[in-house]
């Protein structure tokens, strides 16, 4: 064969192969590359959107955390105030009850003292009558009277 003919046929085969490749092979490859590029771009956009959503969620969480801490602090302060009020009320009631009990105790002590005085008067009167009776039964003697008075003192 002739070298020129061989080069000519090789050139025709090359152009046919190039045309076939450009017509049937290259479009699916470029379509696959374009689809892949689009998926990557969508994935990056979704990642950016996810980062933005995460930042917003963290900001909301920070606000909610601050609000919860503030509300918790307010509730603790209110509870402390309420506890102090309850303690003060109980202390006031205890003071009133203490005053009532002390007054009752003073009244009971005064009544008991009066009862003891009355009993002592009755006993002294009975002893005095008994002593006078014994003195009158005996004959009048200073030494005997002194003895009886000493006995009465001992009984008192």
Characterize the structure shown.
- 0% of the residues are buried.
- This protein has helices at 3-137, 142-155.
- It is rod-shaped.
- The protein has a domain at 3-110.
- It has 2 helices and no strands.
- α1 runs antiparallel to α2.
- The chain has 156 residues and is mainly α.
- The model has no long low-confidence stretch (mean pLDDT 87).
Low-confidence segments, ≥5 residues, pLDDT <50? none
Radius of gyration: 61 Å
Euclidean distance between termini CA atoms: 170 Å
DSSP strand tally: 0
Work out the helicity level. over 70%
How would a crystallographer describe the biggest sheet? Answer: none
Overall average residue pLDDT = 87
- Tell me the structural class: mainly alpha
The number of helices is 2
Overall geometric form: rod-shaped
Membrane topology: Single-pass membrane protein
Transmembrane segments: 6-26
Family: Belongs to the ATPase B chain family.
Subcellular location: Cell membrane; Endomembrane system
Tags for this model:
156 residues; mainly alpha; 96% helix; hydrogen ion transport; cell membrane; ATP_synth_F0_bsu_bac; ATP_synth_b/b'su_bac/chlpt
């Amino acid at each position: 064969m002739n070298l020129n003919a061989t080069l000519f046929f090789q050139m025709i085969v090359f152009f046919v192969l190039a045309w076939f490749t450009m017509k049937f092979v290259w479009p699916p490859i470029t379509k696959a590359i374009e689809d892949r590029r689009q998926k990557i771009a969508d994935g990056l956009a979704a990642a950016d959107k996810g980062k933005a959503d995460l930042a917003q969620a963290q900001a909301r969480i920070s606000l909610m955390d601050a609000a919860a801490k503030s509300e918790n602090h307010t509730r603790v302060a209110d509870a402390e105030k309420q506890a102090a009020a309850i303690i003060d009320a109980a202390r006031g009631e205890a003071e009133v009850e203490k005053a009532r009990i002390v007054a009752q105790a003073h009244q009971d002590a005064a009544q008991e003292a009066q009862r003891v005085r009355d009993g002592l008067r009755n006993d002294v009167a009975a002893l005095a009558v008994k002593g006078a009776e014994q003195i009158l039964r005996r004959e009048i003697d200073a030494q005997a009277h002194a003895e009886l008075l000493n006995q009465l003192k001992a009984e008192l």
